[in-house]
Amino acid sequence: MTERTASGRAQGALKAIGMDEPPVSVLEREDALFILTPKTLVYQDGGGTRRVTLRDLTRIHSDEQGVLRVETPAGTALTATLLGFDVAQVQAFFVQVRDTTARAKEQPVSPLPTAGGQKTFGTAPAVPAPETPGTAKIPPAVTPPADGPAPARPPAPPVASVPATPTPAARAESAAPPPRPAVRPEAVATPAPVSTPLTERGGQDVVPPERLRSTPTPTPAPAADGRATLPGVSRPSSEAPSVRPVVISSSAFTPSTARTPTMITEPARGPERAPAQVEPPVAAPVPVAPSAVSPTPPRSALDTLVRQAAVVEGLTGRLRFLGGVLFVAALGLAAVQYTSGARLDGLWTLLSGGVGTIALLALADMARLLALSAHAQRQPASTDDDT
Fold first, then answer.
1. Which of 45, 99, 267, 380 could form a disulfide with 32 if both were Cys (CB 3.0 to 4.6 A apart)?
2. pLDDT per position in the chain (387 positions), as tens?
3. What is the Cα–Cα distance from 22 to 12, expressed in whole angstroms?
4. What is the 8-class DSSP label of residue 225?
């Protein structure tokens, strides 16, 4: 649905892009919207919002496929499709675009395009208008064909001279008349009698004598393209109206100051979504480096080591026992020597027995440690054999 009046949708779109200009005209459908403000042309569709300053416009045109292009000194600033819009409302909307652009550039508003003429949004060319009948000159009588005797004609009465004031459009038309298809004499039928002169395009008056009779008939009205239509002359079939898509063409605008257009593209706003929960990254398991294992000795060496460990482990208890016996013997001998009067010898014997006892106990601990080490090396080798 399209409408040219400001709507809530247009005002909401202007507020969304931060514009406070009042909308002059609106052209909309379900998925697209044109908004015209006194200084800006705004277009919004599913791809976002684009706007062009009217002072930067140089040309607005569309092709046969209905694709609209808005040109600026920097290039094509806006491309949109006109399919789905009402044809009449599209024409009326872009007429307002042309007039508003002219006002924005401080140029006079050009006249509306006429039917059959070129649709423009700049300074429109002068539209040919029917000239005011001036002084009509009677040409010599047309010689009829030799098929039969010519009927008697009454003498042509003199035609009064009427001064005419040519309009500016008529002067422009007479200065540069466009080419028109030639009309063959044999294709013209006998015209109906008229009492007023017939003015054709180009400023020449042609009044056949047969038309100067007392019975007045209406003057043939000029066609939509500004040409006089002769009675009995059929219009070419190429000029017959046909259904064509909306084609908008505009002559070049003349911007007062060339500058780079301001184009703001904003993505269409969709429904707000809840922020996605970001899961913390899971660290990959770090492979555990295998502990350094001492190289396993050969099988025969392990067996020998186990046997020696068993022997050394048996000596541990014996060394402890010998240490105890040595300490008791040294203590008894020292007591005997001390009581017999050899005190120095008794002290030396006691000291030697104590040191010997400590040495034997330490040797027993070392033997026990060696046995435990041999058994510890034997256990990994047994585990490897089982696997």
1. 45
2. 444 445 688 888 888 888 888 889 998 888 888 999 999 999 988 888 888 988 988 899 888 888 999 999 988 888 888 888 888 999 999 999 999 999 988 755 455 555 554 444 444 444 444 444 444 444 444 444 444 444 445 444 443 333 444 444 444 344 444 455 444 444 444 444 444 444 444 444 444 444 444 445 555 454 444 444 444 444 444 444 444 555 566 555 544 444 555 566 555 665 566 666 666 666 666 656 555 555 555 567 777 887 888 888 888 888 999 999 999 999 999 999 999 988 899 999 999 999 999 999 999 999 888 888 888 877 765 555 555
3. 11
4. T
> What is the value of pTM for the model shown?
0.32
Distances (CA, A) of 318 to 27, 134, 247, 290, 350: 116, 159, 122, 41, 22
Element (H, E) at 355: helix 343-386
Gap between the Cα atoms of 203 and 218, Å rounded: 20
Cβ-based neighbours of 112, under 8 Å, separated by 6 or more: 95, 124
**CA–CA separation, 387 and 173 (whole Å):** 114
Please provide the DSSP assignment of 174-220 as one string: HHSPPP-----GGGPPPPPP-SS-EEPTTS-EE--GGG-SSS--PPP
Q: What values do phi and psi take at 72, rounded to 5?
A: -135, 170
Is residue 226 within 8 A of residue 130, CB to CB? The reply is: yes
- Is the separation of the CB atoms in 61 and 49 below 8 Å? no
| CA atoms lying within 13 Å on the CB side of residue 293 | 11
